[in-house]
Fold this sequence. Notes:
By secondary structure, this protein is an alpha+beta fold. It has helices spanning 2-45, 65-69, 81-89, 101-108, 176-189; strands at residues 96-100, 113-119, 136-141, 143-147, 150-155, 159-169, 194-222, 229-258. The strands form two sheets. The chain has a six-stranded mixed beta sheet. A two-stranded antiparallel sheet has the order 4-5. Strand 4 and strand 5 (150-155) form a beta hairpin. Helix 4 (101-108) runs antiparallel to helix 5 (176-189).
Amino acid sequence: MLKKMLFIMLSICLVAGITTNVMADSEANVSDVSANISTTSTDNSTNKVYNRQFVNSGMTPIPGTNGFFTAPTPDSSFRMAKELIYYLTGDPEAISVNLTEGALENLAKGGDVDANLQIVRADVATAKAGDDGVKWLTISIIAPVVKDGKLVDVRKENLMVGAFADGEADDRETNSFMVIGKVGLKAVKAGFDHMQIVSEGAHRAVEASGWGVGTYTVGGAVSDSGKTSGLVGGGLGYAQNETSTEDRPWIQANVGMLIK
């Protein structure tokens, strides 16, 4: 009887030990498989292909567009005519300055200006070069006289008008002084000796530019037996664009001769 009990107890212990080893091995294997699956998932997540669309001008908005276009202050290309007169005369109260044709050429140098002159009285174009062969042009402005915050009068030269002139810059690198110089040259060459600037400002324009480059290769192969074929393709591209605003100075002027 005692031997049978000992045999049964040994059998139970043996079975329990085997079961424990099997469960431990199974858990270890499951853990390994889980780790491998996690690693595989991580590797796959780094091997993704992303499609990127090239940008174009319509996809690049300008923030604060409404407030920006209605801003009263133009950029650095705009300079008032009274500044030019003050710089050349040194007198803050001066409303005119005399310039030679050569000085006007230097003033207009480097500027891209669309200048126009419409003659209405050819008999007023009587200016001639001096004895030294130098032609002169007087550039003047109309200066308001303000008292107690109210316009009470204007200071200006008395002019007999023989033509109307205007000019506007064609790019942002051309400033107001270049525009004045170019229009002044038009007046001198037409035979006038006075240009009175009656209005000035800057036209705000939107400028957009862009460029792109792209390449593509494709190749194919067919075996001698005619049973196999292959095709390979590839591409490379790059695009860039820029959208901005620019201020183009302009003037309007009356051209003629002084009434003395």
